[in-house]
Amino acid sequence: MLSATDNYRAAIELPRRRLARPVQSPRPGASPRAAQSLTAVRLEWVTARLALRDRWRRGQRGWPASFPLAQFPNAPLLVALGSWLVAASTDGSIHRYARAAFYAGLAAWAWTELAGGVNWVRRALGCAGLVYVVIKIGAALRA
Hints:
With 143 residues, this protein is of the alpha+beta class. 59% of the residues lie in helices and 13% in strands. Strands 1-2 form a two-stranded antiparallel sheet. The chain starts with a helix and ends with a helix.
């Protein structure tokens, strides 16, 4: 008889599937060439559920894997987006501080993308973000 906890776990867990993975399986005493041409299939149980840490790593790698254009936002961009939401929903001094935090977070994100972007598109986004921040700060200072 299953307990209530087991029923709950069974209800929220994703089904497990068997996946075939090719594995090199050389026979003892076989030549190296024959060992390379032989492959066997090993069946493994694989769950479709990912841990939060694995999802974070996968999101940070970007999509598509060969030329990452989109990825889950990193910490400076999350700060900038959160500050932008606060600035959009408030006024007065809180609005001004939130806008300052937005520009600081956006500048930090743009600098990290410009300095360490994984491809030219990401570095161009960093450059555009940094130019945007400089223009907006210059306009706020009436320069």
